[in-house]
Specification:
Elements: E1 2-13, H1 15-18, H2 24-33, E2 41-50, E3 53-57, H3 77-81, E4 82-85, H4 92-98, E5 106-110, H5 116-119, E6 129-133, H6 134-140, H7 142-147, E7 162-164, E8 178-179, E9 186-190, E10 199-205, E11 208-214, H8 220-224, H9 235-251, E12 254-258, H10 264-270, E13 288-289, E14 308-309, H11 313-322
Parallel strand pairs: 3-5, 5-6, 6-7, 11-12
Antiparallel strand pairs: 1-2, 1-4, 2-3, 8-9, 9-10, 10-11, 13-14
The structure holds zinc ion.
Zinc ion binds next to loops.
């Protein structure tokens, strides 16, 4: 499977959005009032060339977002919390064509969530099936969606996503998942936190997984620290997700790829996994996937349920020897 990173421009946000500070509404207020901006961060889209069809994960931002009047004037986040730079040729459509992939041939578009810098390029994919969490869609619709920081007014008129329901088929530390491909090597997992209906994409490669993380965190280090961002609606939910992702990365070699991590492209290119500390107990847990709802659970919350072992014994031993 070939996986590409496409960068659709850059975004700067407040430092306290990257690493939240304070409690409740104060945390979000601190984000907007923070005077420290990040450097311009990449806005990544991931493209998976799968035998069953091309899968695009997130659509990046549109150049229209840099035009006056694109963001609602009355919402404080846009003037106070975000700056974006996108040229028309940086949008996902032209960049896919440059790779030799006509956007109309994309079979699936997966949206990790509906924030503008992930859904801004939707107009390039009128023919694709668009997969999205039901919760995320419901949160983003209407004027309440606009209040929450979504831009439903800019969705294409044809936008009619497939709202997925997770099934109790566990993947690593995630008790639920949704298979995109028949081969069950591209799976969605619920990662609520940054938004209420956020999801991530797990891609199974030979002896490791790619974790296309959306905005679960802005860098790998922040996930390992389980540091909640400055805009997540529910801190507890967010922390639980970060713990779960952290556990996942300790159970199997995982290349962790958040949408705005400046180091993500390099990690993808070299398939550079999250390091597992010597003392971690995660070594003893090979990567298992369960199917069916009544599979037994061993021991504690993150114990894995078994019916299919994805790693060959040799790959697993090689991984153990190297950690
Ligand atoms: Zn976001």
């Amino acid at each position: 499977m070939h996986v590409h990173a496409i960068q659709t421009g850059t975004v700067a946000i407040k430092q306290r959005q990257v690493r939240g500070s304070g409690q409740g509404f104060g945390r979000r207020l601190n984000t907007m009032l923070d005077r420290v901006w990040t450097n311009p961060l990449p806005i990544y889209v991931w493209v998976i060339e799968h035998p069953e069809g091309i899968i695009v994960v997130d659509t990046g931002e549109t150049a229209r977002a840099t035009e006056p009047g694109y963001f609602p004037w009355w919402h404080p986040y846009y003037p106070l919390g975000v700056r974006e730079w996108v040229r028309p040729e940086e949008e996902v459509g032209p960049q896919l064509r440059a790779l030799g992939i006509p956007p109309e041939e994309v079979r699936w578009v997966v949206l990790t969530h509906l924030h503008t810098d992930h859904a801004g390029g939707l107009a390039h994919f009128p023919k694709a099936e668009i997969l999205l969490s039901r919760t995320e869609y419901q949160q983003a619709c209407g004027w309440q969606g606009q209040m929450r920081g979504y831009l439903p007014q800019h969705w294409p008129t044809w936008f009619d996503p497939t709202l997925i329901s997770f099934t109790p088929a566990s993947v690593g530390s995630f008790p639920q998942s949704y298979p995109v491909t028949r081969a069950q090597d591209v799976l969605l997992v619920p990662t609520a936190g940054h938004t209420a209906g956020h999801l991530s994409v797990v891609v199974l490669e030979d002896d490791h997984t790619l974790f296309l993380a959306g905005d679960t965190s802005y860098t790998q280090q922040l996930t390992l620290e389980e540091a909640v961002d400055g805009v997540a609606p529910d801190k507890q939910v967010s922390r639980q997700t970060l713990q779960r992702i952290h556990a996942f990365t300790q159970q199997m070699p995982t290349i962790y790829l958040p949408s705005h991590d400046p180091e993500a492209r390099e990690r993808l290119l070299h398939r550079h996994p999250v390091q597992v500390p010597e003392t971690s107990t995660g070594h003893s847990a090979p990567f298992l996937i369960s199917e069916g709802s009544n599979a037994p659970v061993f021991g504690h919350t993150y114990a894995l349920v078994v019916s299919r072992l994805r790693f060959s014994r040799r790959a697993l031993e090689k991984w153990r020897a190297s950690t």
